[in-house]
Specification:
The structure is a homodimer.
Chain A lengths: L13 H7 L2 H13 L1 H7 L4 H7 L4 H13 L3 E2 L3 E2 L1 H6 L11 H5 L2 H4 L5 H7 L16 H8 L1 H16 L6 E6 L5 H9 L3 E7 L1 H13 L6 E5 L11 E7 L7 H13 L1 E12 L9 H13 L8 H10 L3 E7 L5 E7 L1
Parallel strand pairs in A: 3-4, 3-6, 4-5, 6-7
Antiparallel strand pairs in A: 1-2, 7-9, 8-9
Helix pairs in contact in A: 2-5, 4-5, 10-13, 11-12
Chain lengths: ~350, ~350
Amino acid sequence: MASTGNTGAPLTPAIIFDMMQAHHRTAALKAAVDLDIFRAIGDGPGDVATIARSCKASERGTRILCDFLVINGVLSKADGHTPLSATFLDPRSPACLASIAQFLGNSALHEPDQHLADIVRNGRTSLPGAGTVEPENPVWVQFAQTMAPMMAPLAAPLGQAVLAGQSGPMKVLDIAAGHGLFGIEIAKQNPHAHVTGLDWAPVLRVALENAKKAGVSDRYNMLPGSAFEVDFGGPYDAVLLTNFLHHFDVPTNVTLLKKVRAALKPGGKAATLEFVPNDDRVSPPMPAAFALTMLTTTEAGDAYTFAELSSMYKEAGFSDMTGHPIPMSPHTVVLGRA
Amino acid sequence: MASTGNTGAPLTPAIIFDMMQAHHRTAALKAAVDLDIFRAIGDGPGDVATIARSCKASERGTRILCDFLVINGVLSKADGHTPLSATFLDPRSPACLASIAQFLGNSALHEPDQHLADIVRNGRTSLPGAGTVEPENPVWVQFAQTMAPMMAPLAAPLGQAVLAGQSGPMKVLDIAAGHGLFGIEIAKQNPHAHVTGLDWAPVLRVALENAKKAGVSDRYNMLPGSAFEVDFGGPYDAVLLTNFLHHFDVPTNVTLLKKVRAALKPGGKAATLEFVPNDDRVSPPMPAAFALTMLTTTEAGDAYTFAELSSMYKEAGFSDMTGHPIPMSPHTVVLGRA
């Protein structure tokens, strides 16, 4: 029997079989959210018949789906909820982020998986045009509406990194604002900050709703349009550029960063939030694996290393680049000074 | 910061994010097989430019795909192949089973994933009719053609369990023969055995090819048709029923097992090969998770426990049921005596 070099454990094709079945995991988690299984489990007592009745689902389907979630560490056979599902998937938890299953499980974004060999051949998404960053792509309204709970825990550390104690009047531009949470956080941390959110108009309506909920809408302006076309106005003390650069190639990003720098006051800061892998591009796993999402859904995007982001900033005229990994998350804030 | 009860490790939603992206793993492995990446890596030297040229693919796509396979433990950044990929994915390895990506990655079988919430509601596949076991479903030709390398290592232990040293003249029926490897193995282990393969006619052509390659086609007969409709003939010393019962509900299986028993000589053996989870239905992970595949693709199939299979055998008139887990595999042989 062959054995692995490292461990002496017998070599089996289990990993291969597991990977070929991995697609079920995404489907199972999304289905459980759609069926409201995690609420039913929180209601107790957690037997299959009760969950099935509560979710208006068959007992066969409910049993097999719940067992599958136990196998994957999401639910517990003995207790129903695990700490993970109670905290992040039960809609009664303030930290619930189940809505991310709508964007991350969007079948339009999975469809390129069926053509991945062709995508690798051609080096670009199989989606038409510019893929997910095609103008007015409705997927960004869904992103703004459903991904906020995943981004919310990142807002405070991002705000602290950008403000670094700055408390006086300031103007901030939030490019690709989406849900708006990052700009809103600046307005919350600094009551003298005025924030301008830039995104497609239907997306900005979501951001404005969130600004109202946060009580900062009187200091929240909207700048609808494309980051590449609209006049930024300014000058700004800070520009946020979150979850955006990974969609584009280096020259496009440098062009955009030059435009950002021109809209900043001297000494002003640009702040990107990104999946930033190490130079080996295979660690840590989550930021590194994100490159495949950019391969399948964009023309030329990537998960850029700190060295690459730093180099783009530098070419655009920025200095003093620093990286701030956000604890307990796969994200890093990269700052540059105009 | 919340922490998990068991380990004291901080609680993060990483597992949830990982599951929502898991669909990429299936796509990545299938694309790498389709592009012949594992052959190119075996050829060396394993740099991205060489692999891309060899696979007629873009460097961007090749780099991101190969890095993704490193992240998932399939390839090695330093060495190209891992023992896993060299053994099971490089087409020059005698143990290569890369072809299973065609059946396990068949988009027609993944399509129900998009409707999993409805499947759980309704308790049955979203595929038309009886799902994958609809008469003459072409997917079984693909199964026979591509899954043989995964099944081949199971054939010898299955043959030993069934024969248990029996060496004289005997007649064996192989129901749902597929690639035919299990019946062929009986013919190889016992040169006096005559084997009849039963499956849809286009599938049996694959089995006959394999019987010719194994040099046993003179003792291999074909019985084309449905296991539920065709006259089995007999009487047989043994009947193989591999990867079959999981597609159907208990009453259907009992009916079939009665028909099997009626075709066996007194004291003859029925042998099923199945994914058999423990009574908790959530362990071991691979056999237990297989239930979800049956939920998505069949009307009423399941991954049955030994107790359930044993009870079906008993109701059909069998006795002396025994389970024989096949080492290094997720499969178990269950024997019953007529």
